[in-house]
Amino acid sequence: MFRDGAVQPSSDELTVCNPWNGETVGVVARDTVAQLDEAIQGVRAAWRPLRPDRRAAILGQAARLIRARSGELAELISRESGVCIAETRKETERAAANLIVAATETERLRGESIPVPGQDRLALTKFEPIGIVAAITPFNRPLNQVVVKVAPGVAAGCAVVLKPSEKTPLTALAFAEILLEAGLPAENLVVTTGAPGVLGPALAGHPDIDMVTFTGSVHTGRAVSVAAAGKKILLELGGNDPLIVLPDADLALAVQLAGQGAFATAGQSCRGIKRVIVVGAAADDLVARLVEAARHKQAGDPLDPATDVGPLVSEEAAITVERRIGDAVAANAKLLLGGDRRGPLITPAVLDNVPADAELVVEETFGPVAPVIRVADTAAAIRVANSTRYGLQAGVITADVAEFTEIAAALRVGAVNLNAGPHFDSPHIPFGGVKSSGIGREGIPYSIREMSTVKTITLPYPLHQG
C-alpha cells in the first residue's frame, strides 16, 4: 500500500506481468481489508482541504514532472498493459494536459450571490470538497484513467483513496510518487493494491468514504453501486460506440476514423468504435478501403516503435474476442482480414455484413475489430445504434448538417460527434453515458463539480440602510 508518502512493506504480494511475453514487470502489495480500513481512518483523521492556489500549483507541477519523465512512464505503461509504445507516449502527454486543465479549473471554482426575492436576504453559494473520494480505475490507459479521477479530486480539495486495476498498478504508484513530489501532502492520497473482489467492495462501502468514482464493466459497476449505497457515485461503465456513415459521407475520413477508433489501444477503449454502421450503397467502397487501411496495421511487440496494435491485456481476453469473431462468421458475417490469435495478440480484423444481433456487436468487445453493419436507411441506422444496452458516444459522417441534427436528437448516447468518431475527447467537455453506460459526467471541470458540494449561506439584505 502507498500511504504516508511511501510504499509500505507487505507480507503478501501480487506479481504484475507483461501481457506480451509474460515477464515480471514488478511486485506490489496484496492489501487486506484491515489494512485498507486503517489507511482510510488515517486519511479521515489527518486530511484538511488545501487552499485553491496550492492545489493548482501541485497539479501544474505534476504535469511538468510527467512531461519530464514521459519516456520512462510510457515504457512502464507498455510493459504492464501491453499497449504499444507509440500510443503510451501520447498517453503521458494527454495525462499532463488533463493536469494542466485541472490546475486552471481549480481557480475557476467559484460560487455566486443570489438576492432572495421578497425575503430581504442575500444568499451566497460556495463549493466545498465532498470529502474522501474512492477512485477505482481499469487496466486500459493506466496513467490517464488514474489522472482523470485523481486530478479532479485534488482540484476540488478532496483526499483520494485510489485502487488501480490489479493488472496495471505500477503506473498508478508512479503517479502517486509524482504527486507527492509536486507537493501534495501525504495524508491526501492512499493507493491500495490487491484483489479487486476483496478491496473493491470494502472501499466502496467504507463508512468514511464520501464518494465513489468507478470506471469498468457494467457488472462490476452495479456491484460498486450496491456497496456504495447512500454515497454519491460517478460511474463510467463502457460503451458499444457506433460510427454511422451516411451515403454522402467523405469515405476517406470515415475510413481514417474507423481505423483509429477500432484499432487504437488494441480496441480496448470504452469510447472506441465498436460498430461501423453504413447506410446504403457506399458500403462496398468503404469496406474495401477499410480492409486496405487495416492491412497496413502492424501487430506485435508493444515496445517496437513500428507496432500499431499490441496484445490484449490477457490471453483470456483475446480468446473471448476470437470466439465472438467466430460466432459472427457462423452467423454469416464475412471475415475479410485478420482476427488471428497468437496468445494474447489478435491481428486487426475487418468483418462485413455483421448481423446487428451478433454478440460481437451487441456486447462491448474489447479487441482490434472493425465490424461493418449494413443498413438500408437512416432510420435503420438509428434503430441499430440504439439497440444495445449501452449509450456512451457516437460519430456520424455526413455533409448534411440538418440530417445530422435529427440523428443526434434520436440517438440515446451521452455525446454525438459530427464528422468525428465516438473516440473524440477533450478534457474541457463532459464525458459520460446513458442507459447502462454510467451515471454522472467526467471531463475535468465536470468531475471537479461532481466531487464538490455546494454550501449556501444566507444573511440579511440590504446590509446597510439608506
From TrEMBL:
Domain Aldehyde dehydrogenase: 8-457
One GO molecular-function entry: lactaldehyde dehydrogenase (NAD+) activity
Keyword match Oxidoreductase: yes
Active-site residues, record numbering mapped to chain: E236
This protein's UniProt keywords: Oxidoreductase
PROSITE patterns: ALDEHYDE_DEHYDR_GLU
Domain of life of the native organism: Bacteria
Family the entry assigns: Belongs to the aldehyde dehydrogenase family.
Name of the protein in question: Aldehyde dehydrogenase family protein
Organism: Nocardia colli
